[in-house]
Amino acid sequence: MLVNRAVYRNRFTIPSGYVEPGESLEAALVREFEEETGVTVRVGPLLLTRHKVVSATESDVYFAFALEYVGGLPSARPPEIAEVREPPMAEAVGAPWISELSRMAIRLAAGTPDGWPRSPWKGGEVPGLASEAYHPGKT
Question: Would you call 4 helix, strand, or coil by DSSP?
């Protein structure tokens, strides 16, 4: 389990970032992970998605995937990343110093039940949060 803390955040998260124009989701994930941690990964199954409505004209879509280590040594990558940690999975699933969204993805990766609570929000005029989960092996 690998988490990092950006210089502008108080808590750790799983490495993340944005997809650049013309870039595939998988390529963006591999690039961002390497940029932030120095580690090369292979993308595995989708664990969860989260769609957050920020305003009437802006939203944020988040995908979390299971990953396979390919190579590299984890390290903080300035100027954006201040720290990188490798907590044991058993610690990471409940660590208050890791963001809740990252802990949800970690719980799903660990195969623990109830890793991602569904939001009651159904859409509409008021910005809110909609969530959907993908549990490998479950229907």
Answer: strand
**Which residues contact residue 83 at a Cβ distance below 8 angstroms, ignoring those fewer than 6 apart?**
4, 5, 12, 76
Which of 93-97, 126-130, 131-135 has the highest mean predicted lDDT (pLDDT)? Answer: 93-97
User: Strand 40-55 vs strand 58-71: parallel, antiparallel, or unpaired?
Assistant: antiparallel
Q: If we measure between CA atoms, which residue out of 4, 80, 11, 7 comes closest to residue 39?
A: 4
Domains and CATH numbers, the chain: 3-133 (3.90.79.10)
Q: How far apart are CA 49 and CA 126, in angstroms?
A: 20
Specify the pLDDT at position 110: 86
Structural tokens at position 60: 């944020």
